[in-house]
């Protein structure tokens, strides 16, 4: 089993020919809503890759909360540890997607911002029964730290996706077995700019030093991922596809990557598998709606 501790959001999405500049009005089209949130997206990916998954988080006692939980249950995800918060809205992400699939997001955290360590600690059985625990930063930092400490105590693989990036103490980073930022987050954590695989290599080494030796995977969008880990240090290229929507591609990568790690794959094979899953996802609109099934990823890789 893999336990995910993180956010659940309802994504409100619209397509536009370009992303608006400050003060600019752009005519959009194709409004839709789709279950999202980094925690829920990663849990959805784990479940669709064929691994039992539990999610710990919080939603509001509102219709969006009902929809978010129903969608996760439909994928077989255990949501017993998701708190329903009275008098609080569920998280909402307002997303504009441009003509080439790039996106601009405004996030309203809602109930996600209320998740506390006291709501994580009672679920020790989840951590003890898990091979990996995945955490992101769309929940309060004290909840992130509590989840990582529980993962270590339960001897699960502790995985941090530092997104959206904030200032993080070295002590928190030292709780991680894997840290998986994108190029912007890696640059912020390593105090540099990441524009290439070579930059990602340097950022990963700096981040490894800060974290006391955690394994690092710096995702590079369509360019793939840089892996810095014992036994392999190098660039795994991405797959060329026609992107229509990059929302949740990073979450798909992480869920697929961790799935393969707990199945026993080495970091290179896990990264290639995860790049394939993410490549499929960007050819489809939506967050969880874009997540492929395991059979699709396996078949896709066999053709390449």
Polypeptide structure, described:
The protein is an alpha/beta fold and 304 residues long. It has a single domain, classed as Ribokinase (UDP-N-acetylmuramoyl-L-alanine:D-glutamate ligase, 3-Layer(aba) Sandwich). The chain contains 10 helices and 13 strands. It has helices spanning 38-48, 63-74, 124-128, 141-153, 170-173, 183-190, 197-210, 249-262, 267-281, 294-302; strands spanning 2-5, 9-15, 29-36, 53-60, 78-85, 91-97, 103-108, 132-136, 157-161, 178-179, 215-219, 225-229, 232-236. The strands form 2 sheets. It has a 9-stranded mixed beta sheet with strand order 5-4-1-8-9-10-11-12-13, with helices on both faces. Strands 3-2-6-7 form a 4-stranded mixed beta sheet. Helix 5 links the parallel strand 9 (157-161) and strand 10. Helix 1 (38-48) crosses helix 8 (249-262), helix 6 (183-190) crosses helix 7 (197-210) and helix 8 packs antiparallel against helix 9 (267-281). The longest helix has 15 residues, at 267-281. The protein is globular, with a radius of gyration of 18 Å. The two termini are 29 Å apart. The model has no long low-confidence stretch (mean pLDDT 94).
């Amino acid at each position: 089993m893999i336990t995910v501790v993180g956010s659940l959001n309802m994504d409100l999405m619209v397509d536009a020919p370009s992303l608006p500049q400050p003060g600019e009005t752009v005519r959009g089209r194709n409004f839709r809503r789709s279950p999202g949130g980094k925690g829920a997206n990663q849990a959805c990916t784990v479940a669709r890759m064929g691994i039992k998954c539990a999610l710990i988080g919080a939603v509001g006692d509102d219709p969006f909360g009902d929809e978010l939980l129903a969608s996760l249950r439909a994928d077989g995800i255990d949501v017993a540890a998701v708190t329903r918060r009275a008098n609080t809205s569920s998280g909402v992400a307002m997303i504009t997607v441009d003509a080439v699939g790039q996106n601009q997001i405004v996030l309203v955290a809602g109930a996600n911002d209320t998740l506390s360590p006291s709501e994580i600690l009672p679920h020790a059985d989840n951590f003890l029964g898990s091979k990996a625990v995945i955490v992101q930063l769309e929940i309060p930092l004290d909840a992130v730290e509590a989840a990582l400490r529980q993962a270590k105590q339960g001897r699960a693989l502790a995985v941090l996706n530092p997104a959206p990036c904030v200032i993080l103490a070295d002590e928190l980073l030292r709780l991680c077995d894997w840290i998986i930022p994108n190029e912007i987050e890696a640059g912020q954590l390593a105090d540099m700019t990441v524009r290439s695989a070579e930059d990602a290599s340097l950022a990963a080494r700096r981040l490894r030093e800060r974290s006391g030796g955690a394994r690092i995977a710096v995702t590079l969008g369509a360019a793939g991922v840089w892996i810095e880990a014992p036994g392999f240090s190098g660039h795994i290229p991405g797959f060329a596809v026609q992107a229509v929507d990059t929302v949740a591609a990073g979450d798909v990568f992480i869920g697929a990557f961790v799935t393969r790690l707990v199945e026993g794959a080495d970091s290179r094979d896990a990264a290639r598998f995860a790049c394939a899953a993410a490549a499929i996802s960007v050819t489809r609109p939506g967050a969880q709606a874009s997540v492929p099934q395991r059979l699709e990823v396996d078949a896709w890789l066999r053709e390449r």
